[in-house]
Amino acid sequence: FIEQGGPSTKATVGFEYSQGAWTTDFKVIHFGTQTLGTFSGTANGVPNARYAPRTSADLSVSVALSKSVRLTFGGNNIFNVKPSKQDPNETDNGFVYDSVQFGLNGASYFGRLHVTF
User: Fold this and answer.
1) What is the count of structural domains for the chain?
2) pTM greater than 0.85
3) Residue 33 resides in a domain
4) pLDDT digits (tens, 9 = 90+) for 8-32
5) Closest CA relative to residue 77, chosen from 109, 52, 99
6) Structural domain contains residue 3
7) Cβ distance 37 to 24 under 8 Å?
């Protein structure tokens, strides 16, 4: 698992833009191809699991409400990218998605209030 536990490549590029009280942060993450052995093993005729490359994006927008208060809204994996589907009998979690490249839950969104005392 040490040699197969992550994608062959991973690249991240991020952009941040600020104008006055506003800040926007946009990040693109690319996960390369991954091949992972299955529980049954190739000796039993079950091929290794192959995960196709995937690219996801995160976005957040913040506004400084005062010198000590900042409000942020954003999302991770905003395009709801999921790993390649697999045989659920051969994954760690028994689902069609395995979390080997990145999370399997898809998009998530958040709001955050940052207060400095």
Assistant:
1) 1
2) no
3) yes
4) 889 999 999 999 999 999 999 999 9
5) 109
6) no
7) no
